[in-house]
Specification:
Number of helices: 4
Helix content: under 10%
Radius of gyration: 27 Å
Strand order of the largest sheet: 1-2-3-34-29-30-31
Distance between the termini: 44 Å
Shape: elongated
Strand content: 35-45%
Length: 509
């Protein structure tokens, strides 16, 4: 048998079509036998331990405005199509209705102060946009029909000063000049209300607070053709000290709203109709234009896009997510609500949660931020710049292979996989980075290139050494090269047409 190298070329087996798709690549170094590299990538990563359940099913089609909040014991409060519900027990699917009586609720938001005090926004369907209180510990008592206040409302949160006794509700909506978006304060008894920020954007985005009392607001800027502008989907942070001073001015009867220039820019997300801040300071966001949840960590300047684990939707469903944060027994959680945005009849509504500390920004996303800059990781630059199939330095090595082998995606270099044939033995060498704990390196062999004809002979998972699978004849060796390892795999199986390949699979952490 004679073995001659025919080629060493990168090719794409399947292209990335969306955040939920899988991309595969291969490096083919033919012999009369051959060698290939094939890499799979799923950028829609999951948290380590989501707990999810079905809480609703739409009975008819049509737009469904939903709302989500959590009680101090972790139970959810859920609103949809004029109804409000309180979860029976944490982790259970059962829920009790909070009767709204004759009130026409959207609802636009839910916010919780404690086990006995919560607020619901009436939303935009009623002639007057009000907010109403209810006692989540006594669902049967229903929503208090007397409005607490009457601001236009899109979203709302409970706020308490970290240093004084001041507390109340912060509501986002079209209450600024010309009906533009700002944030207003409403005291617990409803007697004090007024603006605490000047105009933030043309339309309303999400708002959130953190444990230190800082206020986060999202912008939704539209041009004259009602298209989002460059200033849309940004999150701004207002310091707690300024928030408290503005609230105090409302209480004293001389409102002094905070100018937007006093806020600091946090991040520009894919969508910000809904935002949350978790217990470790990361900012979460989602919106109507995207089918995923996005997280930005200000401490590390890294970002990830995630699709939480939940039940299935019918094919083609436009999934809409809501994100919320809550604390239960001293542990911080990130929660989500997943629904069909257009309320397809029979589609389920899912909720879920995971401890904040179980949700890590994957190493691959950290790598992208390091090499491309987190602000440049926008959806419209994925295919050309930072996506797994992209080859921005045009050296013939796509980003996923650069990540796997520790080479730079922005500086041209030599191919990081080297095939060889010596004395009739097929072999190849590649570099493995042990920090890539979200990557599996799998060596497979075949007597053909048919999809079902591959057999695994060696594997490295979660940063562990590459080991033989005990199948086939050959060897695996690793040699340390600085912080990485040079892996050599040989296959002595005879045959006029024999092939080997290295598959790279990026997996959830």
């Amino acid at each position: 048998m004679t073995n001659t190298i025919r080629s060493a070329a990168l090719r794409t087996c399947r292209s990335l079509e969306s955040l939920q798709s899988t991309a595969r690549r291969s490096v083919v170094a033919g012999l009369t036998s051959g060698l290939a590299l094939c890499a799979a990538f799923n950028p829609s990563l999951h948290a380590a331990s989501w707990t999810s359940l079905t809480i609703d099913a739409f009975s008819s089609s049509g737009f469904r405005s939903t709302a989500l909040a959590h009680l101090p014991d972790g139970r959810f409060v859920y609103g949809v199509a004029g109804q409000v519900f309180v979860q029976d027990a944490f982790g259970a699917a059962g829920k009790n209705i909070v009767p709204a009586g004759a009130l026409a609720l959207d609802p636009s938001f839910l916010a919780v102060r404690d086990a006995t005090t919560a607020l619901v926004g009436q939303g935009g369907y009623a002639a007057t946009s009000n907010v109403f209180t209810f006692n989540p510990s006594s669902p049967a008592a229903g929503v208090n029909p007397a409005p607490l206040a009457s601001p236009q409302n899109y979203t709302g949160v409970y706020w308490k000063s970290p240093t004084t006794a001041i507390e109340g509700w912060l509501v986002g909506g079209g209450n600024a000049v010309a009906g533009f978006n700002n944030v207003v304060f409403i005291s617990l008894d409803g007697t004090k209300t007024g603006p605490i920020t000047q105009t933030i954007s043309t339309y309303s985005g999400g708002i959130a607070t953190d444990a230190a009392g800082n206020l986060y607001t999202a912008t939704y800027e539209l041009d004259e053709f009602y298209e989002p502008t460059a200033d849309a989907d940004k999150v701004l942070k207002f310091p707690a000290s300024l928030v408290e001073a503005a609230i105090q001015s409302v209480i004293s009867g001389t409102p002094a709203p905070i100018p937007v220039s006093s806020a600091s820019f946090v991040f520009k997300f894919d969508g910000t109709s809904n935002i949350a801040v978790d217990s470790v300071g990361r900012v979460w966001a989602t919106g109507y234009a995207v089918n995923h949840v996005q997280v930005f960590d200000p401490a590390t300047q890294t970002m990830a896009r995630l699709v939480p684990q939940h039940g299935a939707f019918p094919p083609g469903t436009d999934v809409l997510y809501t994100v919320r944060s809550f604390t239960r027994s001293g542990t911080g959680y990130l929660a989500f609500l997943a629904q069909d945005e257009y309320g397809g009849a029979g589609t389920s509504v899912y909720t879920g949660h995971a401890p904040d500390l179980s949700i890590d920004i994957p190493h691959a996303d950290q790598w992208r931020a390091q090499h491309f800059g987190v602000a440049n990781l926008t959806l419209d630059t994925s295919s050309a710049t930072w996506g797994p199939n992209a080859d921005p330095d045009r050296d013939g090595v796509p980003n996923l292979v650069e990540y796997a082998c520790g080479t730079s995606p922005v500086a041209p270099g030599i191919a990081p996989i080297t095939p060889s044939v010596q004395a009739g033995v097929l072999g190849f060498t590649f570099i493995r980075d042990p920090l890539n704990t979200d990557l599996a390196y799998i060596v497979e062999v075949s007597d053909s290139l048919t999809p079902g004809g591959w057999q695994e002979v060696a594997r490295s998972s979660a940063g562990a050494p590459t080991v033989s699978s005990g199948i086939g004849a050959g060897s695996v060796s690793e040699v340390a090269v600085a912080s990485r390892f040079r892996v050599t795999v040989t296959d002595t199986a005879a045959g006029a047409h024999h092939f080997a390949r290295l598959r790279l699979i990026l997996t959830p952490p």
